[in-house]
Design goal:
Blueprint lengths: L16 E8 L5 E7 L5 E3 L13 H12 L4 H8 L3 H12 L2 H9 L3 E12 L14 E7 L5 E7 L3 H15 L2 E8 L4 H10 L1 E2 L10 E2 L4 E6 L15 E2 L20 H13 L14 H17 L10 H5 L8 H5 L6
Parallel strand pairs: 4-7, 7-10
Antiparallel strand pairs: 1-2, 2-3, 4-5, 5-6, 8-9, 10-11
């Protein structure tokens, strides 16, 4: 799938527009005004993009995002570029708002087989507290072969956090013939997925029909911890925490049940995101600011930066895009409406 730059009319949302007038900008060169064929509305080519109403050079905005994506803090980036930190955070938010538009391309693609890994990482938000009550938990879902980050959300480690990320997994179930979800020890991934998309199995037998996962969907958990010194029955090392459809192929080997790739991504996150590695009392000021940095990291990781292991941009390796995008391309892209 190739992304084409199209100017949508802000009034009638038509794509039928023709160039109307050319004008020059101070920092970004010549631009065009477009005229809608349907309603005759006149609008700029930057309408609906992150660069709308911004007079700053697009190269400077891209530089700020690139510096931030390499692990430099918000204030440090402002000092390097000689601007206020709030300006940098505003640019980040405008860039992060492109997440829904770009992730829509993966939802529209059909896949034969996908293997997802789920894991969590933790940071401090606002003030130090007990890890169980902290809002700095981040749930990450990654596709194994392409290293494509499907979703990452931050918040309290509760049912709402797991439901928010597993809702995205449900979107891929409808587009995939064979989907596997693997987790290191956290059973709530499978339980939440089961509660969201389980279906009744009609087998023409008396009694209530059993509830199982959709056909082709597998969930496996690698049980962690020392089982030798615990009383009672021992849990198996590898387990399916929820009931699966009897027609689902059981072709997962025990060596494949792990979350090593997403754990490696978590280690990279602590290098590239200052909110996860600063040695201060406060790593992140708020959950909204932390989520903003997560969305920026997701877009750059999936659509811009080549993964050092696969040598490809994850969106290209997954088959969602034909070619990687640049930061400037995303900044010029109109948001989905």
């Amino acid at each position: 799938m190739k992304i084409q730059k199209i100017s949508y009319c802000p009034e009638c949302h038509s794509t039928e527009a023709v160039p109307y007038k050319k004008y020059d900008t101070v920092h970004n060169g010549p631009r065009y005004l477009h005229k809608c064929v349907e309603c005759n509305a006149i609008f700029s080519e930057t309408i609906g993009t992150p660069m709308e109403h911004l007079k700053s050079p697009i190269s400077k905005v891209a530089s700020a995002l690139r510096i931030r994506s390499e692990g430099m803090g918000l204030r440090a980036t402002g000092r390097v570029l000689n601007m206020h930190k709030n300006t940098v955070s505003t640019w980040e938010q405008l860039f992060a708002d492109q997440k829904e538009t770009l992730m829509l391309y993966s939802f529209c693609h059909n896949f034969v087989s996908l293997v997802f890994e789920g894991d969590e990482l933790y940071t401090i938000v606002n003030k130090r507290s007990e890890p169980s009550s902290s809002k700095g938990w981040t749930a990450v879902i990654m596709e194994r072969s392409s290293r494509f980050i499907v979703e990452q959300q931050c918040g309290n480690k509760d049912a709402n956090l797991f439901e928010s990320v597993m809702l995205t997994v449900c979107e891929y179930i409808a587009q995939t013939d064979d989907l596997s979800f693997l987790s290191d020890g956290e059973r709530r991934y499978g339980n939440t997925l089961f509660s969201l998309c389980a279906e009744a199995l009609r087998n023409d037998k008396p009694g209530r029909p059993p509830v199982v996962l959709p056909p082709g969907v597998k969930v496996r958990v690698k049980n962690k911890g020392d089982q030798k010194h615990k009383r009672g029955p021992k849990r198996p090392k590898y387990q399916a925490p929820v009931k699966e459809h009897p027609e689902t192929k059981q072709d997962l080997s025990e060596s494949d049940i792990h979350a090593n790739h997403v754990e490696a991504n978590n280690a990279a996150m602590r290098r590239r995101n200052s909110a996860y590695r600063r040695r201060t009392n406060t790593y992140a000021k708020s959950t909204s600011g932390l989520q903003r940095t997560l969305d920026v990291h997701l877009l750059i990781h999936n659509f811009v930066r080549k993964h050092w292991t696969t040598g490809e941009v994850p969106a290209v390796a997954m088959g969602v895009l034909r070619a990687p995008l640049g930061l400037e391309d995303i900044l010029k892209m109109q948001q989905y409406s």
